[in-house]
Design goal:
The structure is a single chain. With 85 residues, this protein is of the alpha+beta class. The chain has one helix and four strands; from the N terminus they run E-E-H-E-E. A two-stranded antiparallel sheet has the order 1-2. A two-stranded antiparallel sheet has the order 3-4.
Length: 85
């Protein structure tokens, strides 16, 4: 698993996470675990090599009274491809 941070220099940033096939399976299992047990959470944690970056990402169930501030998108579209395909 690899994560990177890109500062967009406008007050916003992007976090990119790259996963191996086994990472995807592990992530799915962990997401299913917190769905079944909302009191649990899990982390993606840095190897802390280098001068800095993303230290940790925490995954947990959103509380009902917490407003959304992110959304999930669809898969990336290829050149000339529409959402109809």
């Amino acid at each position: 698993m690899r994560a990177s941070w890109e500062d967009w220099n406008n007050g916003w940033a992007e976090i990119e996470v790259s996963l191996s096939a086994s990472d995807v399976d592990h992530l799915i299992a962990l997401l299913q675990m917190i769905k079944a047990n909302p009191d649990q959470h899990f982390h993606a944690t840095s190897d802390f090599v280098g001068t800095g970056g993303i230290g940790q990402i925490t995954f947990q169930i959103q509380q009902p009274d917490e407003p959304d501030n992110l959304s999930l998108g669809s898969r990336a579209m290829g050149e000339g491809e529409s959402t109809d395909q």
